[in-house]
Amino acid sequence: MKSYVSLVLLDGEVFSGKGFGAPCPRADELRPGSTDRKSAGEVVFNTGMTGYHEVLTDPSYTAQIVVMTYPHVGNYGCNDLWSEIGPEEAIQRSPIKCAGMVAKSLYQGPIPEGRVTLDAFLEARATPLLVGIDTRRLTLALRDRGAQQGVMIQTKDPRPTEIELKLVREYLRAFPPMEGCDLTTEVGTEAAAVFQPTGSPHIVMVDSGVKMNIVRELVSLGAKVTVLPDTVTRDVLTAAKPDAVLYSSGPGDPAVLDEQIALIRSLLGSLPVFGICLGHQLISLALGAKTYKMKFGHHGLNHPVRDELTGKVFVTTQNHGFAVDEASLPDDLGVWFRNANDGTIEGVYSKSVNAKCAQFHPEAAPGPHDSTWIFQSFLDAIPARS
Fold first, then answer.
1. Which CATH architecture has domain 184-380?
2. pLDDT tens digits, residue range 29-60?
3. Architecture of the structural domain at 3-173
4. Which residues on adjacent β-strands are paired with residue 273?
5. Comparing C-alpha atoms, which of 291, 259, 258 is closest to residue 357?
6. Which residues are catalytic?
7. What DSSP character marks residue 298?
8. Taking the model in full, what pTM does it have?
9. Quick one: which of 270, 289, 271 has its CA closest to 280?
């Protein structure tokens, strides 16, 4: 054990345990209104039984503290690929996106040769880990009362004092909620990158926080993929001469991304436009729908989705806290996919322009491969060049 650490939720509930990874701040070091997102953020739970490394490096978890419902993490260590950053990893910029991680128990070794412990991986990347708490109780609290802001603090005693809790409450009251947050500026590529230059068709991916396996899946199908920052202008995008545009996954509230929505709207009808996760939400907004903040979102590797066009059900990987409001759908938008658990929209298609998108992650990594066919369906929707 390195220190006592407590997670304090906005509603005042406290979960105290042991600290690993990077040290958390003390309560008297918190500064209300600070934009520092390490150890503080929206607390969400992930239902995956594996994949803690991929969760940590997923840009969609930016500004979130992730609670792993599976009771054990660390048993296969971490791939320390960030010690030598190559062109793929450079797109995802910094290696860890989430503000912190919470788990029931931590395995510390031995681990497979060539890997590092989860504790060491987190410590080297300024990310804290809280273990030894009742993660079932915390998960039920988030399920019943909804995802909320929280902060992990280091304490001298096993539990925070009343003075420490007072300081934490002041800090959390000033901490910005996820609604209204533009987090895309903190993720994504800062420069253009091209993969498989001789491939076809040519997909321009607008990167709001892409997972590299999206690029790999498209490349494996023969496509050329040009990745551009989500600050790209229409002139720069069209100058790349794409056959289609794909908007990537990413973090934050889609409704505040006015420039991205306007660009998509300007492309509709002139180019095929596809989207994954945040991209799905942006395309829906551009086509006239609305989005809303979910109570606790979908985070995990085991979410069933039904294809409304075929009636088939498959299992998906998901990570999103916002959804498209079905009541707001214009007549032009049809529901492509629906969540089989709660009925929320998981994908839409346009009836008048070449646009289709999915809320879940067909690239998995980790997770089931049931939905990788969606990448081929995107490519099949691109008209052949005359």
1. 3-Layer(aba) Sandwich (3.40)
2. 999 987 777 899 999 999 999 889 889 989 99
3. 3-Layer(bba) Sandwich (3.50)
4. 245, 355
5. 291
6. 277, 361, 363
7. E
8. 0.94
9. 289
